[in-house]
């Protein structure tokens, strides 16, 4: 079970105790979670302290520790050094991968993202506004930046003509930030588990970004966060409350369609990271994505959550 543990109360102390992550406040235990159940720990609060034994235990369990700044955007990610029995070979292949392979991988990622955006629009509104047709126009490396063209059509159709995606903006941007932070943490863990180096990206290449590959691989899964946020806003959510966080965290366990049946979103992310690692070693792009969701696939996702 891959749980996202969210720490949002100031002044708490986190430690490892007999196989558990123990949370204390003022010397009093307020909760514990089995370390084996944790995929990532996300920190949103001030004055949080950690024991060194916990940081070691999280690394040994291949868990990421994500520290968030203002507006729930991540500012730091701690990830383990050892994640896969073929890590050395995978990382060498990743580092030596030629531009053509990197561009082909990025092309497939962008196509999958646009197809999911179009499927989401059709599921919630009945029309994709031309977004679906753009997927066929993506070439190797996406030199025409079709990804951005799709985004310009996608956001007004999903969240209204007045919406502007702004990491520092208010609702629903703060909810999107939180949802993306969750997906990013799960993706970072999958990248390390697949024996890849998260800093070496396919497309994201900011020198200060230590999670570039995770940012690349999470792109096809962003639309699932988007549709969750849309539904939460429709139900009256305007802030990142505990209920909103719970709804967005539960997205990682949401079953999505694949060629072999349904699988939790977190499992699909792991499969993609594994496929990327194999692609680097084999020298050819062969990726595995979930199928674009239909309206029925999103039924429980879109209608099942209620904001308290």
UniProtKB/TrEMBL annotation:
It comes from the Bacteria. Keywords: Antiviral defense, DNA-binding, Endonuclease, Hydrolase, Magnesium, Manganese, Metal-binding, Nuclease. One of its GO terms (biological process) is maintenance of CRISPR repeat elements. It is an enzyme of class 3 (hydrolase). Its cofactor is Mg(2+); Mn(2+). The keyword Electron transport does not apply. Mn(2+) binds at residues 147, 204, 219. Its EC number is 3.1.-.-. Belongs to the CRISPR-associated endonuclease Cas1 family. Homodimer, forms a heterotetramer with a Cas2 homodimer. This is CRISPR-associated endonuclease Cas1. It comes from Pelagibius litoralis. The gene is cas1.
């Amino acid at each position: 079970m891959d749980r996202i543990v969210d720490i949002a109360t100031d002044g708490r102390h986190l430690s490892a105790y007999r196989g558990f992550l123990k949370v204390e406040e003022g010397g009093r235990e307020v909760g514990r979670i089995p370390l084996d159940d944790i995929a990532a720990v996300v920190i949103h609060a001030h004055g949080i302290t950690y024991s060194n034994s916990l940081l070691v235990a999280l690394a040994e369990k291949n868990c990421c520790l994500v520290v968030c700044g203002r507006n729930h955007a991540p500012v730091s990610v701690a990830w383990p050094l050892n994640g896969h029995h073929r890590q050395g070979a995978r990382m060498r292949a990743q580092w030596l991968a030629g531009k053509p392979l990197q561009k082909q991988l990025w092309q497939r990622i962008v196509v999958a993202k646009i197809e999911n955006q179009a499927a989401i629009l059709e599921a919630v509104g009945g029309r994709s506004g031309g977004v679906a047709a753009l997927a066929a126009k993506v070439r190797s490396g996406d030199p025409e930046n079709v990804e951005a063209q799709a985004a310009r059509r996608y956001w007004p159709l999903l969240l209204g003509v007045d919406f502007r995606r702004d990491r520092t903006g208010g609702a629903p941007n703060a909810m999107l930030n939180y949802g993306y932070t969750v997906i990013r943490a799960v993706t970072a863990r999958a990248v390390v588990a697949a024996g890849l180096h998260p800093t070496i990206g396919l497309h994201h290449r900011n020198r200060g970004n230590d999670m570039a590959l995770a940012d690349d691989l999470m792109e096809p899964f962003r639309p699932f966060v988007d549709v969750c946020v849309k539904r939460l806003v429709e139900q009256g959510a305007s802030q990142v409350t505990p209920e909103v966080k719970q709804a967005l965290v539960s997205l990682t366990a949401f079953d999505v369609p694949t060629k072999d049946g349904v699988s939790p979103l977190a499992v699909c992310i792991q499969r993609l990271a594994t496929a990327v690692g194999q692609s680097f070693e084999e020298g050819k792009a062969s990726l595995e994505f979930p199928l674009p969701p239909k309206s029925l696939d999103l039924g429980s996702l879109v209608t099942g959550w209620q904001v308290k």
